[in-house]
Design brief:
- By secondary structure, the protein is of the alpha+beta class.
- It has a single domain, classed as 3-Layer(aba) Sandwich (Beta-lactamase), CATH 3.40.710.
- The chain contains 13 helices and 13 strands.
- Strands 1, 2, 3, 4, 5, 11, 12 and 13 form an 8-stranded antiparallel sheet that branches. The protein has a 3-stranded antiparallel sheet with strand order 6-8-7. The protein has a two-stranded antiparallel ribbon with strand order 9-10.
- Helix 2 runs parallel beside helix 6.
- The longest helix has 14 residues.
- The protein is globular and about 60 Å long.
- It starts with a strand and ends in a 5-residue tail after the last helix.
- Pfam families: Beta-lactamase.
- This is CubicO group peptidase, beta-lactamase class C family.
- InterPro entries: Beta-lactam-related, Beta-lactam/transpept-like, Beta-lactamase/esterase.
């Protein structure tokens, strides 16, 4: 029942995929991008390893329509990809979840961090959530070695002993250095070998190849909360108890300027600067949702999936002030429905992009967009939650539709 829908954008022919059973979902997606002020995006769905929806719409920039080749900066969506790299290595014994990070990265042991394990890192219990004040200035984040040295010399937050604290920005660097030390290779090279190669898609980028940067959609509006001055707002939030943890973890001075700089595509910052296509996100989670296989190839072993998707930190997160139910590098997807999936994992990003795998239905979804959030805030909205809820309902009734 899968059909192709031919479209034309300029002189380049393109082809969308819409299974008839997902027509309501496609209609909802297209309704989101009717004018340039809404930007653009792409949505891909796999069911039991088969791509059943691949659609895109809207504008990648004011004078450029979104196309099959458009990719987008997707913020924390990249944490899920980085975590999956660790799981690929763990199933071959290159990394052990229960060994201390210092076993792979000796300098990390400084200031009482010698016993922090890989498992604790992947469940945001390393106590290194603070990015605010970690470096001298925001553009220091572009220097990978400077960041790694700062994290190795940082002192862990003692609250980590009582529960998780979301490492909103630092998580990616910590995982990247773990992977680099364990393999002896640069993190981006390992991503290409462990994710892009096996899945047959190139667009898993933290450092974007020069020749592909013209494909990146322009983000808008600015990421500033409520349109307020970032420097002023972040400083205030950092001194208010209920928001202090979030400001420490996600709001370094000058971050709003860094997000808009093309220099972010020269750096490796897997906690937030991943650039992906919707198909790349959906295909990775599609392999997980399909028992570890996709395209006739084994991507993850069932035992690895069982271990990596099991909830391991149920406590209240001292940064987010909620219970995300962290598994090993993933959170439970949030859907706009009364009943939330109980056997699903993924990772969403600031602004709206994200992806997840529902292991019960065998369905995965990837969504990327350049329109950050809603008219109220650029930090997020309900687009992915609503698309995910509809996709889950359709997947649950797949054989009867």
């Amino acid at each position: 029942m899968t059909s192709s829908v031919r479209a034309s954008q300029g002189s380049v022919p393109t082809e969308m995929v819409v299974d008839q059973r997902l027509l309501p979902l496609a209609d909802r997606f297209f309704s989101m991008y009717r004018n340039p002020q809404q930007g653009g995006g792409a949505l891909v769905v796999y069911v039991r390893g088969e791509k059943v929806l691949d659609v895109w719409a809207g504008w990648a920039d004011r004078d450029r329509r979104w196309s099959r080749d458009t990719v987008a900066l997707s913020f924390s969506t990249g944490k899920g990809v980085a975590s999956t790299v660790v799981h690929r290595l763990a199933q071959r014994g290159v990394i052990d979840y229960d060994l201390p990070l210092a076993r792979y990265w000796p300098e990390f042991a400084a200031h009482g961090k010698s016993e922090i394990t890989v498992r604790q890192l992947l469940t945001h219990r390393a106590g290194l959530h603070r990015v605010r004040g970690l470096l001298s200035g925001p553009f220091d984040m572009l220097d990978y070695d400077t960041v790694i040295e700062a994290l190795a010399n940082a002192r862990p937050d003692p609250r980590r002993l009582n529960g998780p604290g979301y490492h909103a920005v630092t998580y990616g660097w910590l995982v990247a250095e773990l992977v680099a030390r364990a393999t002896g290779k640069p993190f981006q090279d390992v991503v290409a070998e462990e994710i892009a190669g096996p899945l047959g898609i190139d667009e898993y980028w933290y450092r974007v190849p020069e020749g592909h940067r013209g494909r990146i959609a322009k983000l808008f509006p600015h990421i500033n909360p409520g349109g307020l001055n970032w420097q002023f707002t972040s400083a205030i939030l950092a001194h208010v108890a209920p928001t202090r943890g979030l400001a420490e973890a996600a709001m370094p001075d000058g971050f709003d300027l860094l997000v808009r700089s093309p220099r972010v595509h020269d750096a490796v910052m897997p906690g937030w600067n991943g650039v992906f296509s919707a198909d790349a996100v959906a295909r990775m989670y599609g392999a997980i949702a399909n028992g570890g296989e996709i395209g006739g190839r084994r991507f993850l072993d069932p035992a690895t999936i069982e271990e990596s998707t099991r909830v391991q930190a149920r406590g209240r997160d001292y940064v987010l002030a909620v219970r995300p139910n962290w598994s090993l590098g993933y959170h439970r997807p949030i859907l706009a429905s009364r009943v939330q999936p109980q056997n699903a994992i993924g990772h969403y990003g600031v602004g709206g992009s994200g992806g997840f795998a529902d292991l019960d239905t065998g369905m995965s979804l990837g969504f990327v967009t350049n329109r950050l959030g809603s008219s109220l805030t650029a930090l997020g909205d309900l687009r992915l939650a609503r698309l995910g809820a509809m996709a889950q309902t359709l997947a649950q009734n797949w054989n009867t539709l």
